[in-house]
Amino acid sequence: MLLAAAEHFVRAPQWTWYILGYFFFAGLSGGAYAVATLLRLAGDQRDEAAARIGFYVSFVALLFCPVLLTVDLGAGWSRFWHMLVNVTPGDQSLSFKYWSPMSVGAWALFVFGLFATVSALESYVLDRRREPLSRPLGGPVGLLFNIIGAVLALFLASYTGVLLSVSNQPVWSDTWALGGLFLASGLGGATALIAWLTRYRSEAAFSLARLHAAGGYFAILELILLVVFFVTISIAGTAGRTVALLPLWALALVGVAAALVGARGRARVEPGGGAAVVARTGTNAVIISLLVLAGVLALRAAVIFSAQ
Amino acid sequence: MAAIKPGESYGFFTDTSICIGCKACEVACKEWNQLEGNQAAFLADSYDNTGQLDAQNWRHVKFIDNVPENSTAAGNGTAFLMMSDVCKHCKHASCMEVCPTGAIIRTEFDTVFIQQDVCNGCRNCVAACPYSVIGMNQATGTAHKCTLCYDRLQGGLQPACAKACPTQSIQFGPLAELQQAADVRLAALHSQGVTQAQLYGRNDTVYGGLNAFFLLMDKPEAYGLPNSANAVLPSRNDLGGYLGALATAVVGVIAGLIAFRRRVTG
């Protein structure tokens, strides 16, 4: 689905640092929840510790989102709720426009917040009990809860890219790949962050190798979507706008490369398994995670500033 | 002009062929709408020191360099294409489409209006408007643009810019009457050999038709206006964007399941 070359006369959007921060934390929050749910779905009991780290990461990253979004609003704190409620005199109602990603995203953030909070709370309750405790949200209901939360999480991590595309800005509106690109990057960043935090929770070390493997897959996906992104904006004739941001694109690629290196490292240390993985890759894992996270931030900055 | 009635479509017909660049429209707009204007600046760009439409400039007279490369007969040269630019009050308005709060509405006069008490300053409309019309007012933190003098219309008065225009380059009235007048004017120009004259936004090929439409003396791109091929709505990318994200989500989930299912031995 390639778009016809477009000529743009639109004003620069004036979205800068707060929005960059929001996109970063929304990607991590959504990505972490999805990864944590996948760990519960596909892993075994030994992956539960890493899954709980994921739910904590999701919740903490989510806390930044409404703050950054609200600070960014020109009208300030008093009107964030206008995203959810139409206060037009004589026409008061809930405000939901399915064709406006910003409207859908505001609702997704609100609803996902409930899921992220409950899952983090459940993890906290489980962690505090000394005796083994069955999950408060166990069984099919808990599973369904996590799956619905993960669907919302995947939406949160991706809609920010769609939001940019649904505009008339050069670069942003010349491609359909941004939603997928931000999602792949968010999943990769969240995986790297969870992998990093396993250092501080020994029983989570079991999942480290597989987190790196997943990070590798997400990096390959991101790389493919980066190619699609550049092909589509080249066809639209706006690729030249990205040249000035070459250092940011390079950093984004370094992040992708770091995730791939991490995945290769997993193969080398796999026989050790468990805590041995941490012992042998501890320092490298931190560096890899930091580079991946820097890449996640750089990618979003490069995309946002391409249209400014 | 007949009484202004709610329920009828109103707009502007701006005939750029008779604009003299006096900027009376800019002044009248600022005065009526109490716009302070931006800090005075010398832009070194012809006679234009306004620069662009924004939160403080709801009318902007463009001076577009049109000096011919070869000398021409006396009286036939045009150093500038002049155009009093304004919000187009599109039938299919990009700003209205993306606004998440419902602040941007269509009034009883079929014009596009930003409700200042509803707008929360998200700037989504700024990113969407293809005509670079909307600007952020730093004092209020909200988006501002031409209201087509909504308050004057409610009082039965025509917009200030049209009232002040000394050459009737800016005409205000019921849309159907304006379209008829534009057709007559275009036919007259064509009969006089001015074949480059064309109407912009008169029909529905550009954003479903513009309530503020123009007679141009060159192609739209020369005036910084998207032609009909480039006049596209932001929502055109909804489907592609979401499908791309959905495909990525499916592949990502499968990748995660494969990675996390793999058993570590040892």
Please tell me about this protein's structure.
- The complex is a heterodimer of chains A (308) and B (266).
- Chain A has helices spanning 17-42, 48-72, 101-128, 139-165, 178-197, 208-236, 246-269, 274-306; strands at residues 85-86, 93-94.
- With 308 residues, chain A is mostly helical.
- Chain A has a single domain, classed as Formate dehydrogenase/DMSO reductase fold.
- The longest helix of chain A has 33 residues, at 274-306.
- Chain B has a four-stranded mixed β-sheet.
- Chain B has one domain (10-234): Alpha-Beta Plaits (2-Layer Sandwich), CATH 3.30.70.
- Chain B has helices at residues 24-33, 94-98, 124-128, 150-154, 160-164, 175-191, 238-261, and strands at 10-15, 59-65, 80-86, 104-106, 112-114, 135-137, 142-144, 170-174, 198-200, 212-216.
- Chain B is globular, with a radius of gyration of 23 Å.
- Chain B has 266 residues and is of the alpha+beta class.
